[in-house]
Specification:
globular, 7 helices, Nuclear Transport Factor 2, Chain: A, alpha+beta, 29% helix, single chain
Length: 250
């Protein structure tokens, strides 16, 4: 009974013991403060996660990445989407909706990469290129690419059907999209509305998720109606297409 009575009445020592249980935390806090005062702690560093890599695991993702490359003006992303493997018979082509004044109806990978270097990074044109006119510098851009149909295989592009692609290496697919792009430039603003047919290749030697598994092989610009060009709020009529706007940067 006495032992039990001691437990119920001995409040003083028990309080002191409970109070001591907080001392280690206080000691740690004081140690941290002392360390910071002695060694000059800086403000806490906020860890920023890098942007997630673009995973292109379908033909649709190629077109989505194309939009992203335009929105972010990312030359490296843009060129990584284009087929550039002439040794295996896959070399990118852009097909214009109408010939240029020189009679050109298409251009290849190197010219497409050069055009977009000048468009996306006018302050840093390719070596030996003339400077980009100040009125062509992009201020902002809007782009919407909307599929009209799902991607479908194009067997007519294989060597077995007279095409250029080896069906043991590549699978070709295409789909038609409606296109809307608004180029907000320092000078005249261009609003392009039309269509495009995109031919995407699947590299059968690569696994889904590998870089270069899906690539843009042919980009066909299709004019559907005159495109309006707006300059300082005044709308003008023009036959300009996406290809015509690209041509401004050649």
């Amino acid at each position: 009974m006495r032992l039990g009575a001691d437990r119920s009445t001995a409040t003083g020592p028990e309080r002191r013991c409970t109070s001591r249980s907080t001392h280690p935390r206080l000691a740690v806090s004081l140690l941290i403060v002392t360390f910071c005062l002695g060694f000059g702690c800086e403000d806490p560093v906020t860890m920023v996660q890098p942007p997630a890599a673009v995973v292109i695991d379908s033909p649709e993702k190629v077109i989505g990445a194309l939009s992203r490359a335009y929105l972010t003006r990312n030359v490296s992303l843009f060129t990584s989407l284009l087929a550039n493997d002439p040794d295996r018979g896959a070399e990118y082509l852009f097909l214009l909706s109408a010939p240029t004044h020189l009679g050109e109806t298409q251009w290849e990978y190197a010219e497409e990469a050069r055009i977009h270097q000048r468009m996306f990074q006018p302050q840093n044109p390719p070596a030996d290129d003339p400077p980009v006119a100040s009125e062509l510098w992009l201020q902002s851009l809007q782009i919407t690419l909307t599929p009209q149909e799902p991607f479908a295989e194009r067997p007519d592009m294989y060597t077995t059907r007279g095409g250029a692609l080896d069906p043991a290496i590549w699978r070709a697919m295409d789909a038609r999209y409606t296109t809307y792009v608004f180029f907000d430039l320092v000078g005249t603003d261009y609003k392009v509305e039309g269509e495009a047919n995109f031919v995407v290749l699947e590299d059968l030697a690569k696994n889904v998720g590998d870089t270069g598994k899906f690539l843009l092989y042919i980009w066909e610009d299709i004019a559907t109606s005159p495109t309006s060009i707006e300059s300082n709020g005044a709308a003008l009529e023009s036959e300009s297409t996406w290809g015509s706007v690209k041509g401004l940067y050649r």
